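Morning!

This is the sequence you dropped in the shared folder:
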Amino acid sequence: MKQMKILLCNERFLFRFGVDRVLLLLGFYWKKAGHEIIMMGNKLDKLVADKCSDRFIQIPQAADYLHANDFTRNYLKEHWDEWFTTEDRPDLAFIAGWPFYRSIAFLREKCGYAVFQDHGAVPMDGMSASEKVIQKELRRLRKENLKQADQVIAVSRFIEDSQSIPDTEKSIPTDYVYNGVDHMDINIWEKDALDMDGNDVISDIRSLKKQGYRLIFQPGRWEAGNYKNSDAGFDIAKRIRKNGFKFKILVLCQKQDMKKIPHEVADCFYCMGNIDDFTMQTVMKYSDLGFSTSLWEGFDLPLGEMQFLNKHMYVFQAGAHAEVVAD
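The structure's back. Tokens below.
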């Protein structure tokens, strides 16, 4: 296979976010296969990005976030020749969204081929007025610019059918390719490479297990009031407690992030903060089961990761879950 120079474009390359994790993993595997990987974005975990790319081009954040896509396109036009020559340009631009929507046509022209990886626009239920303004702009930019790509590859059939095809109006090819979930043991996100929380999660988990606790993992970012619906875990805790189980629900946040937690189940949650891959895999292996209360997912990476370790995960039949669940 011909070695390629691949340009990955996204706002962030941070381990805490699902889209970022997918792009970093693609970079890791493509680099391992011998391709040259260039990442371009606003924010990164440098030591992790260094493992997954040969070079990182940092784009300044726009002062006006609402118009970040215009700023980014203009910045690329102004500085492109400083980064690449005609003979030494990327062979492919692989774009995942904000703030590169307005740059798709430019990247296609400069690289020769542009693929948009579609993770979908999230539901706006529960968002603040200012958040909705951004999301409405994102939706407008999708409809205006996705058709400028050579191809759109969604992360699920659900995203392709509900967003990729409508937004491109079938003017360009679309398809879907599921995310891989067999990556936990390669340990890209090491504790020493990240700003990790200091608590000894593995030691605590083992101690809880020895004390006879059933461990229930609620993976994913803790976000209440929107589609993530995280605080529905409080109601689940109440119901489990009524059945007399001795249990802890393990969550990826700090205690102060859990607003309005009912006092009667406050002791049912163990807050792990942000954890590295080895700790995450250990937590999954020690868990008796997991659940997600999310009301929409374009794929749901933690669901796939748990199932890969043969752990039961319970989710609502929403978004792409019907495609990702094993049973």
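Headline: Residues 187 and 278 are 6 Å apart (CA to CA).

More detail when I'm at my desk.
O.
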